[in-house]
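Saturday, quiet lab. Running sequence design on the structure tokens for the scaffold JK sent over.
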């Protein structure tokens, strides 16, 4: 067991001290106990390292809002233990960490298994919306709906103790750390980088997974040069929990046979085995069409025009990033998609100067900027812009109570009729955004 700091993770080691290290990474909302059924068999050959995400399983609540930062904490923990090289298997969020390791630290990883994983998990809007729900209602709605996302209906009905364990596992997670992890998944996207994963990879997925299912798995296999696909029948998202024997067998076979040799620092070379013949286990692997609309950068972005000159970077790129993070992909896609030859220049102007020059300035945080923006819109009578900025305020971390206080303050200084209209709009938006979806 571990002593955790703000730069390290809570962990547990099992198995022979002189055995090669195999790391097992958890899914969002779970703890290292999701791997309990695999450990007895795996520790026959490996020193098994399990870790908890911040605020999960009683781990100290030091939030991490990017997969890159979480990976850095994991490596700092391993460095402290003198562990330099390892195999890695990760489920869902743990799979994102595995991809980050393989892409940014390939010298550390000998073999990789990605379980219920994806190069991009849903859309940024979906995870930021989940953060709004948790900030407003706590984790109980997410906890109660977890079994439906994680298990098949038959398993959940037949295993009430495991189902209740899953609910309690989420319910006892630190809300702030859960929200930060949602933000990390919202910004995670390595679809264009999969060819850079050069480690032997097993992609494992449950046949009934409706969160990151076989389509996402085939996208990974198509993009990673040395990857194989295994589909586990009768399993949903938490495959290691629902089908422990099948997952254990697949892990043992993969890590026993596909372990890349270490880099030899004395010769400066690494033995490269002949490229394996990739068996066709399913239909020819081609990237599946995503279930969600692609970002506007792929389908509806206006043609970029030259930005300001004089040595400064064009603020358009920063602006479109901030605009999406604050207003959401769906709103920005819709707005830019409606632009035509007449209005495209105005949309570029808004992106470049309002979002790239002002919203991206470091002098105020986004919560403060949302407060100022809501007040200004009310004062100017611009009620047509209130709804998206109420949603933005929720995404930027304001609670419904804090938004109410902003509107009450505006009522004093901007007038009762204007504030009354704002309250009606905000009431509807907040109801839509903070009502949990079962």
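Result came back. Writing it out in full:
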């Amino acid at each position: 067991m571990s002593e955790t700091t703000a730069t390290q993770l809570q962990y547990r080691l099992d198995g022979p001290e002189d055995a090669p290290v195999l790391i097992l990474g958890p899914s969002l909302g779970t703890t290292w106990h999701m791997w309990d059924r695999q450990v007895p068999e795996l520790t026959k050959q490996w020193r098994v390292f399990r870790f908890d995400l911040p605020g999960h399983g009683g781990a100290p609540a030091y939030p991490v809002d990017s997969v890159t930062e979480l990976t850095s904490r994991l490596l700092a923990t391993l460095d402290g233990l003198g562990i330099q090289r390892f195999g890695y298997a990760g489920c869902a969020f743990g799979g994102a960490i595995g991809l980050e390791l393989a892409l940014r630290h390939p010298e550390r990883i000998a073999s990789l298994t990605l379980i219920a994983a994806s190069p991009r998990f849903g859309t940024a809007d979906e995870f930021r919306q989940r953060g709004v729900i948790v900030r407003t209602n706590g984790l109980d709605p997410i906890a109660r709906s977890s079994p439906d996302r994680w298990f098949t209906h038959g398993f959940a009905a037949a295993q009430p103790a495991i189902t209740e364990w899953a609910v309690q596992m989420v319910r006892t997670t630190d809300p702030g750390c859960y929200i930060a992890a949602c933000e990390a998944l919202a910004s995670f996207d390595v679809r264009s980088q999969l060819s850079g994963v050069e480690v032997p990879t097993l992609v494992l997925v449950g046949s009934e997974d409706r969160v990151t299912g076989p389509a996402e798995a085939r996208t990974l296999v198509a993009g990673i040069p040395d990857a194989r696909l295994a589909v586990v029948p009768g399993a949903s998202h938490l495959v290691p929990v629902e089908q422990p024997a099948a997952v254990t067998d697949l892990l043992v076979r993969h890590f026993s046979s596909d372990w890349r040799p270490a880099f030899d620092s004395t010769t400066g070379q690494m033995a490269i085995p002949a490229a394996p013949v990739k068996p066709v286990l399913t239909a020819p692997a081609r990237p599946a069409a995503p279930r969600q609309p692609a970002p506007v950068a792929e389908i509806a972005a206006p043609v970029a025009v030259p930005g300001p000159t004089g040595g400064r970077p064009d603020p358009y790129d920063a602006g479109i990033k901030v605009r999406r993070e604050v207003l959401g992909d769906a709103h920005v896609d819709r707005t830019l998609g409606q632009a035509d030859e007449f209005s495209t220049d105005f949309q570029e102007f808004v992106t470049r100067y309002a979002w790239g020059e002002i919203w991206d300035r470091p002098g105020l945080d986004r919560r403060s900027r949302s407060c100022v923006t809501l007040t200004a819109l009310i004062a100017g009578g611009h009620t047509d812009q209130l709804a998206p900025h109420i949603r933005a305020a929720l995404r930027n971390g304001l609670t419904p109570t804090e938004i109410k206080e902003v509107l009450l303050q505006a009522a004093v200084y901007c007038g009762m009729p204007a504030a009354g209209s704002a309250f009606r709009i905000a009431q509807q938006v907040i109801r839509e955004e903070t009502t949990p979806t079962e």
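Notes for JK: Residues 416-434 form the longest helix (19 residues). Residues 150 and 237 are 5 Å apart (CA to CA). Ask whether to fix the surface positions before the next round.
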